[in-house]
Amino acid sequence: MAKSHNLLNYDRVAMADFFEQQGEKAYRATQVFRRLHHDSPQSTDIFCDLPTALRTKLAQTTSYPNLPLASDHVATDGVCKLLFDVGGDRIETVIIPESNRTTLCVSSQVGCALACRFCLTGKQGFSRNLSTAEIISQLRQANRLLPPGKKITNVVFMGMGEPLLNLDAVLSALKIMIDTHGYALPPRRVTVSTAGVVPAMARLATLPVALAVSLHAPTDTLRDEIMPINRKYPLDTLMAACHRHILNRSRAFITFEYVMLDGVNDSVACARALIRLLHGLRCKVNLIPFNIFPDTPYQPSPYEAIDRFRDVLMRGGVMTTVRKTRGNDILAACGQLAGSVQARTMGLGSEKPLLRA
């Protein structure tokens, strides 16, 4: 009998439904779910404590395959970029270690259809959506590659793709990540970033995860130029959706991501326009130094311009941080993920062993 059911595609509710269809008790579904995600043993037979009949049935009809790891690259600052094979395509996942946390940047699509002009992923075009299993496998395998005693503490959907254009699979993966029988990640430590797919934002708000909006411009004229999605969902529509997102969530706020492009969006006038745009929203702005990639028409803003922009926002009452660039020597920084052979053959850094043998 063909193994037609990948168990990594099921959140716990869906797993219970599947087990019921197979004539099994709901608590068995929770056992299997927990063994797949929460316990995460290294044993080749993770269901060794289940009844023999159930183990036989699962072996005949289900699977939970790992994504093939094509290569890994470790940057000088410790950031690790994992290149996974997904049916002939390639996706990239980035592990960002820090002293008090370890963040995983996951991909939700192969490529991206939005074609933001400052993003290498957008330049390669769109191939397909990832399944829930392919999304959750990035977290599952990253945890297994970390040194003993370490695990992923934060997840950001800021890798390849626009998460809200693959919403069903992303929502299912999010449920697995924050489930106490799954990876038990606090919802505030799981962030979904969108370029502004407005119709999907309401469904995302049904889960208590954090929202980041890739803004990058304070006016429609400028955003139209660098982010084509703005022509479909202009700023007044996007901002209205942002206000709705936090309306009945007393502790929620939105992070607005703003890549700093020299001479494009980094002027004092742009900072003042951004203050007006964000008025009345519980939010913070994350200024992102632009990370250069081959054939880009843009240059990063000088640090003096970034500091000046930040200071204007802060004086205007907008909480503002400047993101530290990590992993750019292996094209693992924000906007540099491509998942292609090109990114592996530019001589940017060297291949080193995995984080865990």
The helix-strand sequence is: EHHHEEEEEEHEHEHEHEHHEHEHE
State the shape: elongated
CATH architecture of the largest domain: Alpha-Beta Barrel
How many structural domains can be distinguished in the coordinates? 2
The share of residues in extended strands comes to 15-25%
CATH topology of the largest domain, what is it called?
TIM Barrel
Quantity of strands, as a count: 14
Major sheet: size, sense and barrel closure? 10 strands, mixed
- SS summary, helix count: 11
The CATH homologous superfamily of the largest domain is termed: Aldolase class I
> What is the name of the CATH class of the largest domain?
Alpha Beta
Helical/strand content category: alpha/beta
The separation of the N and C termini measures: 35 Å
How confident overall, as mean pLDDT?
Answer: 89
Question: Helical percent range?
Answer: 25-40%
Q: What are the low-pLDDT stretches, counting only 5+ consecutive residues below 50?
A: 340-357
- Radius of gyration, rounded? 21 Å
Provide the spatial order of strands within the biggest beta sheet.
Answer: 3-4-5-6-9-10-11-12-13-14
Write up this protein.
- 32% of the residues lie in helices and 19% in strands.
- By secondary structure, the protein is α/β, with parallel strands linked by helices.
- It folds into 2 domains: 59 residues, DNA polymerase, domain 1 (Orthogonal Bundle); 276 residues, TIM Barrel.
- Strand 4 and strand 5 form a beta hairpin.
- Helix 5 packs parallel to helix 6.
- GO terms for molecular function: methyltransferase activity.
